[in-house]
Amino acid sequence: xxxxxxxxxxxxxxxxxxxxxxxxxxxxxxxxxxxxxxxxxxxxxxxxxxxxxxxxxxxxxxxxxxxxxxxxxxxxxxxxxxxxxxxxxxxxxxxxxxxxxxxxxxxxxxxxxxxxxxxxxxxxxxxxxxxxxxxxxxxxxxxxxxxxxxxxxxxxxxxxxxxxxxxxxxxxxxxxxxxxxxxxxxxxxxxxxxxxxxxxxxxxxxxxxxxxxxxxxxxxxxxxxxxxxxxxxxxxxxxxxxxxxxxxxxxxxxx
Amino acid sequence: xxxxxxxxxxxxxxxxxxxxxxxxxxxxxxxxxxxxxxxxxxxxxxxxxxxxxxxxxxxxxxxxxxxxxxxxxxxxxxxxxxxxxxxxxxxxxxxxxxxxxxxxxxxxxxxxxxxxxxxxxxxxxxxxxxxxxxxxxxxxxxxxxxxxxxxxxxxxxxxxxxxxxxxxxxxxxxxxxxxxxxxxxxxxxxxxxxxxxxxxxxxxxxxxxxxxxxxxxxxxxxxxxxxxxxxxxx
Amino acid sequence: xxxxxxxxxxxxxxxxxxxxxxxxxxxxxxxxxxxxxxxxxxxxxxxxxxxxxxxxxxxxxxxxxxxxxxxxxxxxxxxxxxxxxxxxxxxxxxxxxxxxxxxxxxxxxxxxxxxxxxxxxxxxxxxxxxxxxxxxxxxxxxxxxxxxxxxxxxxxxxxxxxxxxxxxxxxxxxxxxxxxxxxxxxxxxxxxxxxxxxxxxxxxxxxxxxxxxxxxxxxxxxxxxxxxxxxxxxxxxxxxxxx
Lengths: 255, 234, 243
Fold this sequence. Notes:
The complex is a heterotrimer of chains A (255), B (234) and C (243). Chain A is α/β, with parallel strands linked by helices. Chain A is 36% helix and 20% strand. Chain A has helices spanning 11-19, 51-63, 77-82, 97-100, 144-153, 165-173, 184-193, 210-213, 226-242, 244-253, and strands spanning 3-4, 28-32, 41-42, 48-49, 67-71, 88-89, 104-105, 114-119, 136-140, 158-162, 179-183, 199-206, 220-221. With 234 residues, chain B is mostly helical. Chain B has a domain at 19-173: MetI-like fold (Orthogonal Bundle). In chain B, 40% of the residues are buried. By secondary structure, chain C is mainly α. In chain C, helix 3 (60-75) crosses helix 6 (108-132) and helix 6 (108-132) packs across helix 8 (149-179). Chains in contact: A-B, A-C, B-C. The B-C interface holds B 57, 59-66, 68-69, 72-73, 76-77, 166, 170-174, 176-177, 184, 187-188, 191-192, 195-198, 201-202, 204-205, 208-209, 212 and C 71-72, 75-81, 83-84, 87-88, 90-91, 174, 177-182, 184-185, 192, 195-196, 199, 205-206, 209-210, 212-213, 216-217, 220-221.
């Protein structure tokens, strides 16, 4: 077993230091769940890449700290933060009230909608209680999409919950799922672009109600790490001003 | 030749993790098993009860649930303890429960309970006359344990030990579910990426069978060693 | 029933995790787990009897394949077998067009197949041991009576073998109950699946998993007592006369 001696910060220590104005921001570890293309994924030789990873690295450089990425499954990602396995989460996490009770969010750094995707040959109207009746819907366990689908359609449709987005795509490929509900950019990249012609978007992109879909993706910190959140917010503003953000955005989402 | 699509090296790393995990948890399980066996045979009412409680709970709950409880809940529990230590005594430590540690501890805990049963039976099979003889020679408790009880106990415990090891080896596959990159997880990832589940899963199955066969051979050699002094007929 | 639900709702009013909705997830999970385990055990048992007899056959062409099947299914993790069957069936050419797909599409049947094949392999070995342990004298007596092989199996060997196999089979039943927890890996909402859902939604590992652990513990005890009862009934003749 490893005993990590944390010299500067304990729980109380952190609370006390948080009060002082010039608290030093130290090197941090960031938790991320892969694969979630194009936001975060691995190249075949195992290297992490994606929009979150590049933006996160750029933010760290801007702040002047070293950031180390820690891969963590989605369903353990918030407990992992609280458990100090890492100091921040940058993993396509939507800011919403439920999570706000657990973590402190940065300003939103991107605001993607969610959308329904289905195989080309599945006849499915604009999603509603009637059109989804008896369908099998895939979602990633513990995501806002899971909460939304469970609450809205849990009674009429079968909801299959997956540990990763990859598992879900594989099951839709094999015909086990009639539709999936995903962050739009992820669905676009993994379903529309890479499996050209086999999938379609069903209905409108969805951003309401806000109690589920929140205000976009944010970086999550422990509640007491206000200085850290502040540093990231300032860095984000700088990157948006100097064009670095635009550059990274174009690289992953085009136009 | 089978095309592994570049997953060969990672699969090999995964196999090493499986073996490391298996051996470390086996060591922990043997230690816990010896402790449990002593507790259950002890004259102390409390120790006896504790031993029984431990084996009952472990044998009543699925491995996967215990593993998730320990992995997801363990860190929070440990942090509460370390936070309390910090507040009370100003001791500042941070213990990191990663997947590997959680895996070793859970599997060790689970099989400690089974080993306890194996060792208890084996200790009781040692002729008490021999122990008395040892005492009569003026041997200390420890010396009696080391020279008489342990070697003879091992002879009786080996079949159970080997059996538990085979089950333990297969249980290591569960760590892939909590996110450790053992060979099952690598194979699952590779199957999904390449859409060739048969290739990767059958390779993994073959590696498990290989490890099992090698261990079987190893246990047979050990058994021979501990059987020294007993007739072939036994 | 109405009154009971109202009472339950009142009891749960202060609890944000164990609401009626999450409890219903656990309830459905319990039912799925029980179905999955029960069905796989029954089918596995039916398969295991002929396999156990064949495993002791004089003919190598019959004995060796069964030996190989048992060796592979007992020597590899159930999780690997589950992955193989769940993901493997998809890649059988053209299966999506056949009627088989209707049952293989849902995760329940692939999991049931994996569990059944696994428990059948273990049960075969258990029965094999029990059949081998049939006292020589009983077989000789049956032969002396001029019983055919089939009659001897049915009347003499199998009934006593079943009884001898009972304690070991009880362990296998508990083992299957625990092994069924991995069904949640292929999206089945069994007991463990329900616990993982509650955990992911409320970030409450202790509540979610301790509760489910308690349910499994109760199920284990129920099985344990059932088999203890059966042993008492069926193995009474094996007890020492004084006891």
